[in-house]
């Protein structure tokens, strides 16, 4: 009997630990009807779902951005809470069933978030010709799919300009996730921006091969900073968390190192002390834009590219905190040149 | 018939069964604490798996590789080896089948079996590396097989990038139609779920596992080495050879799993940013299945249902994905810590004994 008791007490103890961990979850869901649109009737109560890649909706990066977009859409259009939802994928094998789940359930629009989902989304789109789907970062050639891509190279060019003006060591770094076309655009744009300001600055590049390995981000950043790099631009999703982590450690020891964030304004997550600026990719805006088109009956398949001109990419508004006025002015000049087409940023 | 009933009342069946129930209860309490309704959640799970032909088919798709990796771990375990390398062996099987599937042009009757065979041999050899190092140099197979998992992952990405992936893509060319083992008519019946011959091969592999270990002389040797290597050596068995052999067969199961995943599900190999996870889940499957072939199949079904149904819980009941991992982890915990479970089971067994007399 004693034994039973002791086992039970251990069990309850470990349980309460588990419980403590998940107590705060429900608040994460936003309240649907709090939107103050008065009584303005929504055009149509659409249902929009999204499937994340393996990063999940708390990746501090584009999955999260997309989910925030959907949540904003729900408030904007005054939709019931259950009209937006997401499914997180555990592995490549989950993409098709997850996308299919939304489609078969009759959701009006299903988003696939990320380049990695391209082929899978195509399969689902072909099998369900009446369903409407959309994808971020990949071109899917099907009439019922809207493909939204970003000119990351244009935004990254501006990040490169900032890095080139701010570096003291004349060495800057780029940490990429997987070597795929999207990330390549960040890479090439950044390098072009740096070289446009000062061709003598060295750009050190490392692809970690993963979007979800903060430990690799940290060790990569460590060796880069060790080589004398003082600013790192990362385009590596969750792996980048490690880059910030390493920068924080070094900053605490008095080293003057910076990180340039990606996708979202990462200074909000990691703090102004280490985040020089962020190359923001408005995945949230894209998600909202396509869904609103749908609710107004204007949805159409095909590819759209969002760049500086469309405000699809750009530097975060909080850049003013760490980047001096004159540098931002220069950035603005370059931006205008790119928008007008006087500068073409390489993307391949 | 009596024998069948005997199997089900035996402790070996009762303990995992109770462990599973305890695991589900623990998960339910965790969900309650998180503010979710566990009854709704489990209903959502069941509805997801059995609610539509498509999802049921996809659940079978999910179960299949788990049978293979479960067998891979269980087989080595019977010889006293802890094969954590099923993941790597699985991946090497994927590489080999992709290479054969893409590069050759053969009639289907030869091509598909050849591609699967290539996966089997590659996985087997990959496992045998760890076996050889253990036999020849006494290196712990846990360490080497874990390291080989990573070698396999990066080897796969390198091979694909260097030879099979067209510029600007991140997936290899598709394997030739003749190598594909998807069952078209069955997939159609299941609303385009990705069903393939691999499932049948998995069941055959489990039967092979049983016959080899329990009905042949070399199986007797393998098990004997697992039970007591010193006694086996004294009895004149070659322990080292049996270690390599066990790891080869273990790796072979995992390798076939990888091959059928490519040839039946994806039809191409993608650049992997992380392990597939099947190999690691295979450890748990083997554990829950008591390292027996029939048990592995049942455990794989349980695991496949839980993991595939998890997205239903997320979708309909709003339970976050992390919580279903808590459920799965608690099931593994209670199976591993069967001492705890036995405390719950003992009264039942006692009563049975008394009643039986």
TrEMBL record, chain A:
CDD domains: PBP1_PrnA-like. The keyword ATP-binding does not apply. It is a lipid-anchor. Keywords: Cell membrane, Lipoprotein, Membrane, Signal. It is found in: Cell membrane. Residues 1-20 form the signal peptide. Residues 47-347 form the ABC transporter substrate-binding protein PnrA-like domain. GO terms for cellular component: plasma membrane. Pfam families: Bmp. Belongs to the BMP lipoprotein family. This is BMP family ABC transporter substrate-binding protein. It comes from Brevibacillus fortis.
Automatic annotation (TrEMBL), chain B:
GO terms for cellular component: plasma membrane. Keywords: Cell membrane, Membrane, Transmembrane, Transmembrane helix. It is a multi-pass membrane protein. GO terms for molecular function: transmembrane transporter activity. InterPro entries: ABC_transp_permease. The keyword Membrane applies. It is found in: Cell membrane. The chain crosses the membrane at residues 12-39, 59-78, 90-110, 116-135, 147-167, 195-214, 296-317, 323-345. It holds the Pfam family BPD_transp_2. CDD domains: TM_PBP1_transp_TpRbsC_like. It comes from Brevibacillus fortis. The keyword Transmembrane applies. This is Branched-chain amino acid ABC transporter permease.
């Amino acid at each position: 009997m004693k034994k039973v008791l002791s086992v039970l007490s251990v069990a309850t103890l470990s349980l309460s630990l588990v419980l403590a961990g998940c107590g705060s979850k429900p608040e994460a869901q936003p309240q649907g009807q709090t939107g103050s649109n008065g009584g303005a009737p929504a055009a149509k109560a659409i249902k929009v779902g999204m499937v994340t890649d393996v990063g999940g909706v708390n990746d501090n990066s584009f999955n999260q951005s997309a989910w925030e977009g959907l949540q904003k859409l729900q408030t904007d259009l005054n939709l019931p809470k259950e009209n937006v939802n997401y499914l997180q994928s555990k592995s490549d094998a989950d993409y098709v069933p997850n996308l299919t789940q939304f489609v078969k359930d009759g959701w009006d629009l299903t988003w696939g978030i990320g380049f990695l989902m391209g082929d899978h989304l195509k399969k689902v789109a072909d099998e369900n010709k009446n369903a409407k789907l959309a994808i971020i970062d990949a071109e899917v050639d099907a009439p019922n799919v809207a493909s939204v891509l970003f000119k990351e190279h244009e935004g990254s060019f501006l990040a490169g300009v900032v890095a080139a003006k701010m570096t003291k060591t004349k060495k800057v770094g780029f940490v990429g996730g997987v070597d795929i076309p999207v990330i390549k655009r960040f890479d090439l744009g950044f390098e072009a921006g740096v070289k446009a300001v000062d061709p003598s600055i060295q750009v050190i590049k490392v692809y970690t091969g993963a979007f979800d390995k903060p430990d690799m981000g940290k060790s990569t950043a460590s060796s880069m900073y060790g080589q004398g790099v003082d600013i790192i631009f990362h385009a590596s999703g969750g792996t980048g968390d490690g880059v910030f982590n390493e920068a924080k450690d070094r900053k605490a020891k008095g080293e003057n190192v910076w990180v340039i964030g990606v996708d979202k304004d990462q200074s909000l997550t990691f703090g102004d002390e280490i985040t020089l600026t962020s190359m923001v990719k408005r995945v949230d805006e894209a998600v909202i834009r396509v869904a609103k088109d749908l609710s107004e009956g204007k949805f159409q398949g095909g590819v759209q590219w969002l760049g500086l001109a469309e405000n699809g990419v750009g530097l975060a508004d909080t850049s003013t905190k760490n980047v001096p006025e004159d540098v931002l002015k220069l950035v603005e000049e370059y931006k205008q040149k790119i928008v007008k087409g006087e500068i073409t940023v390489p993307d391949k | 018939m009596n024998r069948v009933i005997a199997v089900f009342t035996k402790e070996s069946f009762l303990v995992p069964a109770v462990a599973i129930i305890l695991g589900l209860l623990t998960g339910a309490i965790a969900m309650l604490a998180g503010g979710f309704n566990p009854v709704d959640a489990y209903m959502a799970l069941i509805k997801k798996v059995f609610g539509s032909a498509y999802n049921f088919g996809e659940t079978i798709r999910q179960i299949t590789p788990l049978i293979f990796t479960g067998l891979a771990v269980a087989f080595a375990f019977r010889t006293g080896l802890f094969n954590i390398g099923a993941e790597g062996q699985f991946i090497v099987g994927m590489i080999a089948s992709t290479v054969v599937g893409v590069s050759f042009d053969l009639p289907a009757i030869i091509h598909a079996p050849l591609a699967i065979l290539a996966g089997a041999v590659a996985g087997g050899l990959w496992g045998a590396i760890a076996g050889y190092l253990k036999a020849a140099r006494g290196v712990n197979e846990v360490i080497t097989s874990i390291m080989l998992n990573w070698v396999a992952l990066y080897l796969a990405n390198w091979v694909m990038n260097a030879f099979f992936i067209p510029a600007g893509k991140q997936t290899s060319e598709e394997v030739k139609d003749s190598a594909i083992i998807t069952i078209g008519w069955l997939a159609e019946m299941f609303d385009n779920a990705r069903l393939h011959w691999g499932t049948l091969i998995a069941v055959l592999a489990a039967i092979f596992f049983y016959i080899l270990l329990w009905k042949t002389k070399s199986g007797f040797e393998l098990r004997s080495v697992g039970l007591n290597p010193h006694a086996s050596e004294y009895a004149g068995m070659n322990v080292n050879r049996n270690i390599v052999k066990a790891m080869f067969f273990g790796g072979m199961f995992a390798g076939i799993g990888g091959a059928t995943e490519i040839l039946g599900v994806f039809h191409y190999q993608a650049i992997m940013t992380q392990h597939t996870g099947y190999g690691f889940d295979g450890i748990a499957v083997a554990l829950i299945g008591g390292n027996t072939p029939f048990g592995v199949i049942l455990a794989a079904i349980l695991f496949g249902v839980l993991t595939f149904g998890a997205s239903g819980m997320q979708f309909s009941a709003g339970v976050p994905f992390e919580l279903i991992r808590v459920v799965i982890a608690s099931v593994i915990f209670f199976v591993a810590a069967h001492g705890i479970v036995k405390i719950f089971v003992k009264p039942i067994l006692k009563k049975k004994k008394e009643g039986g007399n």
